[in-house]
Design a protein that fits this description.
The chain is an alpha+beta fold. The chain folds into three domains: 56 residues, Arc Repressor Mutant, subunit A (Orthogonal Bundle); 208 residues, Bira Bifunctional Protein, Domain 2 (BirA Bifunctional Protein, domain 2); 45 residues, SH3 type barrels, CATH 2.30.30. The strands form three sheets. It has a seven-stranded mixed β-sheet with strand order 3-4-5-9-8-7-6. Strands 13-12-11-10-14 form a five-stranded antiparallel β-sheet. α2 packs across α3. It is globular. The C terminus is likely disordered.
Length: 336
């Protein structure tokens, strides 16, 4: 483990630590400690307070992920379906890590967590801001006997699993935006990224990635190009431990994946509609340079978005949805 990560672990408790003691613990000079502090502030956006005569402390203590703690928090039924739980200090991308594994080396039910991602990705290749020691960066590999085309509604089932996990931990006012964004009062709290590979008639392999904001500073979030929120800013989300959150997400996700394999999305349609923040509202669906405006009337059993447009309901499997502020004319600015 490098000096920077050892330094973070020393500061994680949020208490003051003198430069002299830190230097002794890390086996470096006090000047080297200061250099690392500057790097953490400027390169990683970490809020570190320095006071002469007292030392350094993190403004917000960090609860680092612990494998033994997460496993202990999981129900027995969930531990049975996990093949491996690994936690990295830093990784390019948890999804990419699992995608690159050989089928011989990784089994279904393999979970990868990280304290930090250097190349975290959202949908459509967007950057997912991934500061160290905050938020959840989790990927789960799962194998299905189904063909890839039969998994088209899986991302919606996974989104419901995230909502269930948050509700179980007491977080309220959570909702979904098709296909797989988790929002709180129209601000993005979490996103999902599914990557599917497999034979045309099955079997298939899915890597399901989740990024969930637990604590973001304004500096860390400065590159986010949409309204966002973190759990620390939600009254019902304060005080939730990251290890507990990771465990609940793993539990709900594995349960959702097992149920989807045997039952598909159909049993979840009513629940999804209850959580759908845009249901029965006028929305804009963007697909590349094409935009369609219509009334969002639900989703079908395959996870497609159902839009009422020009007097006809059509199903759409891809695109980005945004809520229109002007809901007076569902045909305004529409493009067929």
């Amino acid at each position: 483990m490098g000096t920077r990560y050892l330094l973070i672990r020393s500061l994680a408790d949020g208490k003051f630590h003198s430069g002299e003691v830190l230097a002794q613990q890390l086996g470096v000079s006090r000047a080297a400690v200061w250099k690392q502090i500057v790097g953490l502030r400027e390169q990683w956006g970490m809020d570190i307070h320095a006071v002469s005569g007292r030392g350094y402390r993190l403004i917000h203590p960090l609860e680092l992920l612990q494998q033994t703690k997460i496993l202990a928090l999981l129900p027995v039924v969930t531990r049975r379906v996990l093949s491996k739980l690994e936690i990295h200090d830093s990784i390019a991308s948890t999804n990419e890590h699992l995608m690159l594994q050989s089928p011989v080396d990784v089994s279904s039910g393999h979970v990868c967590l990280a304290e930090r991602q250097t190349m975290g990705r959202g949908r459509r290749g967007r950057e997912w801001i991934s500061p160290y020691g905050n938020n959840i960066y989790l990927s789960l590999l799962w194998r299905f006997p189904l063909a890839p085309i039969e998994l088209s509604g899986l991302s919606l089932a996974a989104g419901l699993a995230v909502v269930r996990a948050l509700n179980q931990l007491g977080v309220t006012e959570i909702g979904l935006k098709w296909p797989n964004d988790v929002l709180w009062r129209e601000r993005k709290l979490a996103g999902l990224l599914l990557e599917v590979t497999g034979e045309s008639e099955g079997p298939s392999q899915v890597v399901l990635g989740i990024g969930l904001n637990t604590l973001l500073s304004n500096q860390q979030a400065s590159r986010i190009d949409q309204p966002w929120i973190d759990l620390a800013s939600i009254p019902s989300g304060k005080g939730i431990e990251r290890n507990q959150l990771a465990a609940e997400l793993i539990h709900q996700l594995t349960n959702a994946l097992e149920c989807f394999e045997t039952e598909g999305l159909m049993p979840l349609l009513a629940e999804w509609q209850q959580q759908d923040l845009y249901h029965n509202k006028i929305v804009s669906l963007r697909m590349g340079e094409r935009t369609i405006v219509g009334k969002h009337v639900g989703i079908d059993k395959n996870g497609a978005l159902l839009l009422l447009h020009a007097g006809e309901v059509k199903a759409y499997y891809a695109g980005e949805v945004s809520l229109r502020l002007d809901q007076g004319d569902e045909h305004a600015n529409a493009a067929d």
